[in-house]
Design a protein that fits this description.
This protein is 44% helix and 19% strand. It has helices at residues 16-27, 34-40, 47-57, 64-75, 93-105, 120-128, 184-206, 220-235; strands at 4-10, 31-33, 83-87, 112-117, 130-132, 138-140, 148-153, 163-168, 211-215. It has a five-stranded parallel β-sheet, with helices on both faces. α1 packs across α8, α4 (64-75) packs parallel to α5 and α6 (120-128) crosses α7 (184-206). The longest helix has 23 residues, at 184-206.
Length: 236
């Protein structure tokens, strides 16, 4: 059977991380995040890593050519022999064309582009209301607040916006909020960036009949089941 090569796309809050983990565990293929790959370059000493470190130090953007080389290196690791979940890549039609050509050279092709569809207002609520325990369990003050207590606490000197404080009812553990989730402006910027970079790719892959839309507003288990059904249908 051909390898399973999935591009996973979705706005913040659509559950990409959770669903990438489901696909990874269910199908035995790695979750390849370009963000993770570039972060790993900071601790490597080979020529490719040093080249990327210099580019990042200078504040320049990493070129498509170098990004493609990083992805190729990762896809040629033994654990990716049967496929991979690509997250954060490709970021342009040019990168998409390279990926298709590269896979074709290996006798492979993209299986599907899974687009986790989520209303942008819901995406904002999921990010802005997200809090996490030390063990990594996630809650949301708007949609998943059972077992937690939360409130927006005013700054004593009125110099800063109210601060979200949330705790577990059972233990009193103080829950963690990502700094970028606390800024409405930062969330909107991330949504804007997603729209600007993703729409051309959606159009590109739709022209090839590869886009499979999954309703990401449903519960996690329902989304996972729908993904499983989609993959089964495109592989049959």
């Amino acid at each position: 059977m051909a390898g399973l090569y999935i591009i996973l796309m979705g706005v913040q809050g659509s559950g990409k991380g959770v669903q990438a983990a489901f696909i990874r565990d269910h199908y035995g293929i790695p979750h390849v995040s370009t963000g993770d790959l570039f972060r790993a370059m900071k601790t490597r000493t080979d020529s490719l890593a040093q080249q990327i470190q210099e580019i990042m130090k200078s504040g320049q953007l990493v070129s498509d050519e170098i990004t493609n080389a990083v992805v190729q290196e990762r896809l040629e690791q033994p654990d990716a022999a049967k496929g991979a979940i690509l997250d954060g890549y490709p970021r342009s039609p040019g990168q998409a064309q390279w990926l298709e050509s590269y896979l074709q050279s290996r006798g492979e092709s993209l299986t599907a582009v899974l687009l986790l569809d989520l209303d942008l207002y819901q995406a904002f609520r999921r990010a802005f209301g997200r809090v996490t325990s030390a063990s990594g369990e996630s809650y949301n003050i708007y949609s998943n607040s059972d077992g937690i207590e939360w409130a927006f606490v005013e700054d004593a000197n009125k110099q800063y916006p109210p601060r979200l404080e949330a705790t577990l009812k059972a233990t009193g553990e103080k829950l963690i909020r990502r700094a970028d989730d606390a800024s409405a402006h930062a969330i909107i910027q991330r949504i804007d960036t997603y729209l600007q970079t993703t729409q051309p790719l959606i159009e590109y892959f739709e022209s090839k009949g590869l886009v499979q839309r999954v309703d990401a507003s449903k519960p996690i288990e329902s989304v996972s089941r729908e993904i499983e059904q989609v993959i089964a249908s495109v592989r049959s």
